């Protein structure tokens, strides 16, 4: 994302600022095209391999580029690869992750990105005006080559059988319940919906809110910092590159904190705190830059930018990506995420292309529009965002947990009416997908009218469980869009006990 930020003073010196801005922003221009590649109906392994190949080619083109045009082509290729990765990496991580770690591992993607930003900024220390910048850009190709050799496949049947041996019956049935119920919702309402159908439907307002949050994520100005911090720190701090490294280091720490907060705080609370904190940081940037009484604080703008980045990572950064799978029904998740990805990348491109022009003409006052966006976001989120701790997509489809468990045969196994003296129990009611309970004994009160059903036979239970597992495996093997919804809902249902043994999931 920000590989060109620390090497700007050395890479193709004398390049006009508009052309350099194009080289920076063309990365985001390629993103929407990459998300379209995620539609191909092939397994995760071929997609991951293609993604690594694109990253490898892009890194190689940048490293060997004879002119700025070659650099632009390499950045475009890496942008397509990055857009592709946003569509496939969450699914792949969910496939190879043990259930109790799936939510945390999903958020590690963002953590890996910010560590990469810190690495590129630090690696540029001591860089001269020679060809060292080519080696830095070539590292991307090397990492992609190594990563491609480590890609593993996945077989749903083995994974689920392993999972079955590791968890209690209650946890196992809940896991299957989520898969099967989501599939039921999709089959009843159609395999997918279009963007126009989603906007016009009952969840249109929710989708528009998620889309607005993605627009705000980019127009709040975060990538102006990641793309151009070395540029706009010049003349404000003594060492602009050191300032960029400080920002990148704080970014890593803030992302680590976000991993902890994400499962402990409500999404709405985090968004409000994040937007409010970023707004205060923008006010600090403007105050330290333009108020005579504060200009003496030499590191004031740097500290404000650090706060800006830190507040971004705890809310405005990760939450827009989590919300589609949490507050939209399963049949809408795939199209919603794809639409949000494309809008997000387009807004990213606009910021990358226009910020240098704004900075050149308005200086730090170019952060004022970002402050206006954050103020509007704060008001809109306070008014429209539902309170959410990490809900489930199937909850949005109208299926409550009680109803789902009833279908799985875990709800209300009430017995038949007892005899006059409460001794004769009837057959308990089973779930829609479950099995009937055995005969029970009526209580003595009221002539046994409060009869309670007993348990069904063990063999009946096991046979039905085999059927449910088989169906769940078939569902997630055939339906990648369901895998996507299932993965994105994992964080809310994987809060398992700390004493649980480690997983024996076996990717091949």
TrEMBL record:
Keywords: Membrane, Transmembrane, Transmembrane helix, Transport. It is a multi-pass membrane protein. One of its GO terms (cellular component) is membrane. Residues 414-456 have a biased composition (Gly residues). The chain crosses the membrane at residues 19-37, 49-65, 71-93, 105-127, 133-155, 241-262, 269-290, 302-323, 335-358, 364-383. It comes from the Eukaryota. It is found in: Membrane. It catalyses: D-galactose(in) = D-galactose(out); D-mannose(out) = D-mannose(in); D-glucosamine(out) = D-glucosamine(in); D-glucose(out) = D-glucose(in). Residues 414-457, 488-508 are annotated as: Disordered. Residues 1-389 form the Major facilitator superfamily (MFS) profile domain. It holds the Pfam family Sugar_tr. Residues 491-508 have a biased composition (Basic and acidic residues). One of its GO terms (molecular function) is hexose transmembrane transporter activity. Homodimer. PANTHER family: FACILITATED GLUCOSE TRANSPORTER PROTEIN 1, SOLUTE CARRIER FAMILY 2. This is Hexose transporter 1.
């Amino acid at each position: 994302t920000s590989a060109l930020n620390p090497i700007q003073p050395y890479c193709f010196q004398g390049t006009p600022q508009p052309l350099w801005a194009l080289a920076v922003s063309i990365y985001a221009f390629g993103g929407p095209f990459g998300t379209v590649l995620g539609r191909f109906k092939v397994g995760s392994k071929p997609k991951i391999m293609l993604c690594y190949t694109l990253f490898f080619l892009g890194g190689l083109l940048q490293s060997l580029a004879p002119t700025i045009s070659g650099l632009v082509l390499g950045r475009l290729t890496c942008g397509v690869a990055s857009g592709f990765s946003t569509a496939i990496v969450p699914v792949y991580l969910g496939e190879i992750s043990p259930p109790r770690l799936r939510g945390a591992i999903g958020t590690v993607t963002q953590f890996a990105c910010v560590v990469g930003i810190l690495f590129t900024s630090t690696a540029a220390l001591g860089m001269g005006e020679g060809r060292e910048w080519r080696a830095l850009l070539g590292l991307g190709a090397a990492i992609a080559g190594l990563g491609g050799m480590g890609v593993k496949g996945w077989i749903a049947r083995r994974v689920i059988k392993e999972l079955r041996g590791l968890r209690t019956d209650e946890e196992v049935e809940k896991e299957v319940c989520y898969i099967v119920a989501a599939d039921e919702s999709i089959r009843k309402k159609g395999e997918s919906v279009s963007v126009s159908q989603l906007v016009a439907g009952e969840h249109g307002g929710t989708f528009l809110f998620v889309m607005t949050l993605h627009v705000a994520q980019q127009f709040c100005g975060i990538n102006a910092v990641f793309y151009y911090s070395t540029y706009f720190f010049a003349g404000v701090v003594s060492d602009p590159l050191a300032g960029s490294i400080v920002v990148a280091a704080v970014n890593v720490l803030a992302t680590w904190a976000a991993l902890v907060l994400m499962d402990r705080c409500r999404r709405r609370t985090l968004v409000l705190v994040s937007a409010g904190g970023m707004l205060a940081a923008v006010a600090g940037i403007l105050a330290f830059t333009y108020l005579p009484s504060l200009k003496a604080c030499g590191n004031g703008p740097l500290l404000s930018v650090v706060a800006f980045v830190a507040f971004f990572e705890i809310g405005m950064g990760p939450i827009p990506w989590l919300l589609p799978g949490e507050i939209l029904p399963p049949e809408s998740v795939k199209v919603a995420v794809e639409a949000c990805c494309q809008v997000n990348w387009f807004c990213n491109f606009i910021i990358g292309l226009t910020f240098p022009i704004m900075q050149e003409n308005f200086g730090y006052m170019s952060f004022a529009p970002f402050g206006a966006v954050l103020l509007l976001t704060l008001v809109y989120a306070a008014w429209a965002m539902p309170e959410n701790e990490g809900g489930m997509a199937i909850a949005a489809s109208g299926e409550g947990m009680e109803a789902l468990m009833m279908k799985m045969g875990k709800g209300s196994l009430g017995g038949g009416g007892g005899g006059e003296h409460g001794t004769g129990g009837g057959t308990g009611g089973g779930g829609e997908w479950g099995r009937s309970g055995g005969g029970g004994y009526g209580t003595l009160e009221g002539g046994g009218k409060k009869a309670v059903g007993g348990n069904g036979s063990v063999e009946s239970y096991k046979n039905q469980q085999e059927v449910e597992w088989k169906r769940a495996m078939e569902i997630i093997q055939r339906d990648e869009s369901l895998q996507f919804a299932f993965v994105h809902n994992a964080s809310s249902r994987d809060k398992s006990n700390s004493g649980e043994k480690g997983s024996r999931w076996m990717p091949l």
